[in-house]
Amino acid sequence: MTTTGEVAQRVGEDRPRSCPGGCGRSVPSGVYVCRECWRALPPASRRAVNAAWRAVREANTETIHEAIARYERVTADAALILGSRMGL
After folding, report:
1. Which residues, including other chains, have CB under 8 Å from residue 3's CB and lie 6 or more apart?
2. What is the C-alpha separation between 82 and 79, in angstroms, rounded?
3. Is residue 50 within 8 Å of residue 8, measured between CB atoms?
4. Which residues contact 7 (CB under 8 A, 6 or more apart)?
5. Helix boundaries (H) for the chain
6. Residue-averaged pLDDT of the chain
7. Local structure of 49: helix, strand or coil
8. End-to-end CA gap in the chain
9. For the chain, how big is the Rg over CA atoms in Å?
10. What is the C-alpha to C-alpha distance for residues 88 and 76, in angstroms, rounded to an integer?
11. pLDDT level of residue 25 (50, 70, 90 thresholds)
């Protein structure tokens, strides 16, 4: 299970970059800020970042589920059409 801090720190980048907290440390792909800068943020700010990140993640998950459902409908329709043309 991930902690809320780990969830908030994740960002979708492919390569390490400089910590946006201004400390100059390198942060790995998928991490928002380094651990020290994260802990230096006031708890209310960390909660706000976590809430925003969860909202984005949930919106993306919903979009992905909609795309999968659309794909399944289209392929099912195509199978019916092809099957009727082939006499199946």
Report:
1. none
2. 5
3. yes
4. 50, 53, 54, 57
5. 4-9, 35-40, 43-85
6. 77
7. helix
8. 48
9. 21
10. 14
11. very high
**Among 37, 2, 44, which residue's Cα sits nearest to residue 18?**
37
Closest CA to 11 of 45, 44, 60, 62: 60
Q: Which residue type occupies 13?
A: E
* Spatial CA neighbour of 43 closest among 81, 5, 1: 5
**Strand partners for 27:** 17
Amino acid at 49: V
CB within 8 Å of 21: residues ≥ 6 apart: 33, 34, 36, 37, 38, 40
For residue 75, is pLDDT > 50? yes
Q: What is the pTM of this model?
A: 0.50
Burial of 36 from C-beta contacts in 10 A (0-12 / 13-18 / 19+): exposed
Residues in the chain: 88
